Amino acid sequence: MSEGILLFIEQRDGKLNRTSLETLVAVQKIAATTGDTTSAVVLGQGINEVATEIAAKKLAKVYTVEDDKLATYTPDAYVGALKQVIEKLNPRMVAFSHTYRVRDFAPRLTAALGKTFVTDCISFRQDGNDTVFTRQIFQGKINTDVRVQSAPPIFVSFQAGSYRADLAEVGDAPAAVEALAVDLSSVDVRTQTEAPFQEAKQAVDLTQAPLIVAIGRGIKEKDNIKIIEDLAAAMGAEIAASRPICDNEWLPMDRQIGSSGQTVAPKLYLAIGISGAIQHVVGMKNSQTIVAINKDPEAPIFDIADYGIVGDLFDIIPALTAEVKKAKGE
Amino acid sequence: MNIVVCLKQVPKKDSILRIAADQKWIDDRDISYEMSEADAYALEEALRQREKHGSGEVIVLALGPERVRQSIKEALAKGADRAIHLHDDIFNSATDAAGVARALAAALKDEKFDLVFTGLQSDDYGFAQVGLILAETLGLSSATIVMEVQPEGDSVRVKRELESGWFQWVKIPMPALLTIQSGINQLRYATLKGIMAAKKKELKEVKAADLGLTAQALQPAQVIEKAYLPIKSKQTEIIAGKPAEAAAKLVEKLKFDARVL
Ligand SMILES: Cc1cc2nc3c(=O)[nH]c(=O)nc-3n(C[C@H](O)[C@H](O)[C@H](O)COP(=O)(O)OP(=O)(O)OC[C@H]3O[C@@H](n4cnc5c(N)ncnc54)[C@H](O)[C@@H]3O)c2cc1C
Ligand SMILES: Nc1ncnc2c1ncn2[C@@H]1O[C@H](COP(=O)(O)O)[C@@H](O)[C@H]1O
Prior knowledge:
Oligomer: heterodimer
CATH superfamily of chain B: HUPs
Helix content of chain A: 25-40%
CATH superfamily of the largest domain in chain A: HUPs
Shape of chain B: globular
Order of helices and strands of chain A: EEEHEHEHEHEEEEEEEEHEHEHEEH
Low-confidence stretches of chain B: none
Bound molecules: flavin-adenine dinucleotide, adenosine monophosphate
Structural class of chain B: alpha/beta
Number of helices of chain B: 6
CATH topology of chain B: Rossmann fold
Number of strands of chain A: 18
Number of helices of chain A: 8
Radius of gyration of chain A: 23 Å
Strand order of the largest sheet of chain B: 9-8-7-10-6-1-4-5-11
Largest interface: A-B, 91 and 80 residues
């Protein structure tokens, strides 16, 4: 019978990905209501330190899977290895954090096993024997409660920031670490990888800016950015942007905030014409004060804003610039 | 170089979304539709690759109701060579990623292609899965969140986006499936000439029975039990008033309450 919850732990170069700890919290919470035993699995080479770090948490067991083919990440090797791990351990549920790497292999894994995968969840609710997951659709504008209708294991991934890593429970004693053997001799690793790199050195370091004025697609055209520059100049703020603005090359890439750009936590983050998709929000949600200006009162950005103005930015921004100048006695 | 582009139609970005009476989906009356954003970039990339290569076909593959023809025609007008439309009430059963991928895979069984492009995730469901399930089903190599595509003989070298501004080049053998990230290129518009030419292009309608699929075979393994507006987690102070008034109030708040100005 399928039993227990298995947590996938992500590591790169022997360093733990912090979002794995967030998902650990989700797993611990699910287990607290269902009584499931929880274990974790780490793949790679040279992963003892990560395994020891994780074993300090409240878990029944930590499995390590080492193989030459797992030294650098590839989807084929990860799918091949995890398939064997899951067949061996036969868990009731397998949990991931919804990272770019998990996006790259987990759907293949679940398809290879013929199972369903509930992706990018933000919470769960236990309903009798069923775990009902909440996931967002339409880029965070609508929530859905999703029920799985197939036999276990159930595969689920949680969105970054849905649970707080610092709330992970620590065990009374370290969990046992067990090496699991897999046979990857028949796994054809089709991906040849090159070393990860960053584009040309970041020209601006937005992480040091106390005030940030960020614009999104609501600005409509490149030429309109002028009104934002005026506001930023009046405030003494740096300009940042959501991804589409940088994709369109209206502002350089190093001004992009979010999961594929910079992560900032300024004193003030003014989000103008930005809807508040999770990939943007992860890059700025820890700002001390968040202000949103958006014409759509239902825009998800308002969910995390301290202050909001609902209206047309083309009316509001010039007025705001004038008021800032007035306040500064200019 | 033959490239299949999987194209999904979704509600327009600025649509006002309301929950349907049965609380299972949005109320789709008064909604207009467009290509899912990443798919538009996938199509553009396919057209550019074909143009660079000088020969081959770009084949659009879309599953969905009658209205999807509009997006298919737009793709043909932009330069795709032909299209396959999976159009049948039976396909309405495919409401999870595996169901959609199963149908798309069946439609590609007899096609000859070097590359399949999908968006990295759709703008409505956002499963981020259909592409990879398709790859696994068809036994294709895969790479996700792709920002640059360089075919090299029998392989394709692609630039993948990693988190926090990192990238990585990887090389995989063709046929391969790539999930394309928005912003990989600059989109073109359809020209009048393109729109006229599209009228003569093949747009094949395929029924579930043509693929040997039944509603049973497409049954979802995960279902939306309830759709609802998110519950706000933070108390947001909404500042009302005419632009000048609201702006003045905001500046005051930022100066004296939040003390950030
Ligand atoms: C793997 C992945 C990584 C990603 N990485 C990032 C990232 O690092 N950073 C990032 O930002 N995004 C990222 N994205 C994209 C993200 O999902 C969203 O698509 C993006 O953030 C949307 O940008 P936006 O809010 O500017 O545009 P939209 O979502 O189009 O929102 C525009 C907003 O402007 C408002 N508006 C329009 N006109 C006006 C007006 N006149 N006055 C006031 N308001 C107006 C609208 O109501 C709307 O809310 C990523 C996506 C994926 C899948
Ligand atoms: N109904 C569909 N028809 C054609 N392609 C689709 C369909 N649904 C999803 N796709 C493709 O799969 C990608 C990922 O979708 P998703 O897994 O829903 O996030 C989309 O960007 C499309 O390229």
